[in-house]
Amino acid sequence: MSNQHTLTTFNLLPVGLNISTWWNFGSMLLACLALQTMTGFFLAIHYTANINLAFSSVIHIVRDIPHGWMMQNLHAIGASMFFISVYIHIARGLYYGSYLNKEVWLSGITLLITLMAAAFFGYVLPWGQMSFWAATVITNLLTAIPYLGITLTTWLWGGFSISDPTLTRFFALHFLLPFALISLSSIHIVLLHNEGSSNPLGTNSDIDKIPFHPYHSYKDMLMFTTLITTMFIIMSFTPDLFNDPENFSKANPLTTPQHIKPEWYFLFAYGILRSIPNKLGGTFALLMSIAILITMPFTHTSYIRSSAFRPLTQLVFWTLIATFIIITWTATKPVEPPFTTIGQVTSSMYFMFFMMNPILGWSENKIMMTTP
């Protein structure tokens, strides 16, 4: 009976023996989604989607509702932890060639786009000064779309400027999108279990498998404990670590902040947007900064899956990571030299990584075939 149960576990959860801690960030994302959904529901029952009351309702939650300060901080800090885990999860997929599981990878990119939409709508809800102006700048990008731009912008705003209907729509979308995230996550996990997890060696995981529980589930519990501990440390000692000081002032359409910028996890895309003077070109580059991830399964030409055995790809990969950090940094700086030049150079390097992927594969194949 025990052998039959073990065999069933192997069949249902084929997990490679050698997968490392980098694979646990997928489970951390599920934990973040659950935490954000629970704290978000608590905040939603006290929040008022009205431009005259939204900012006051957030203050009311923090000051007057029992444990409201905790829920609000957990939700705000949890969003940043969510994106830290997402970016590490994607970087691991790029490094170890996990994108070759095409269905899993494409469902993951769909999840990323949905998550970014939910985070953007949520960032507007406190109706602080930076929330209002960041929303104004980003939604105005729709006007760059030929013929339909102004119509789409007016529809999204619910009028001819960001006002009460806009906030109501953003609140409704922010409340509904987590349910889409839960559904997409379920599909993502089912596809993952059907195809099996990748591993650092890039070999077939079916060669040597162990049950998911207890070997990997205990690692997931350790990572979840680490996540919660980190969040409570930030909440206890530096609760405003990820907040912009401008957002502690109520939105004022008559006063423009000196430097308008979105939350830190959008800064790399915002930096790419700023690097192109043309509005339509910048909007297209902004969209492509995420959409280009879709091309990875179709541009892989190397005989070897994992970058662990591909030195040229390793060099380019770590250059990409450095480029991502530099773009994020430049996006926090004024639009003036030398930051504009640095932003343009690093934005070009960001896209070059994806364009070089097939060339790197062919080059490494040739080196491998000619090496005795």
Short description:
The chain has 15 helices and two strands. It has helices at 2-12, 25-44, 54-63, 68-96, 102-124, 129-139, 149-157, 164-195, 212-215, 217-237, 267-274, 279-291, 296-299, 311-330, 339-370, and strands at residues 15-16, 209-210. Strands 1-2 form a two-stranded antiparallel sheet.
Describe the structure.
Heme b b562 binds at residues 75, 174. The protein folds into 2 domains: 13-253, Cytochrome Bc1 Complex, Chain C, CATH 1.20.810.10; 261-371, Orthogonal Bundle (Helix Hairpins), CATH 1.10.287. It has 15 helices and 2 strands. The chain has helices at 2-12, 25-44, 54-63, 68-96, 102-124, 129-139, 149-157, 164-195, 212-215, 217-237, 267-274, 279-291, 296-299, 311-330, 339-370, and strands at 15-16, 209-210. Strands 1-2 form a two-stranded antiparallel sheet. Helix 2 (25-44) packs across helix 10 (217-237). The radius of gyration is 22 Å and the shape is globular. The protein starts with a helix and ends with a helix.
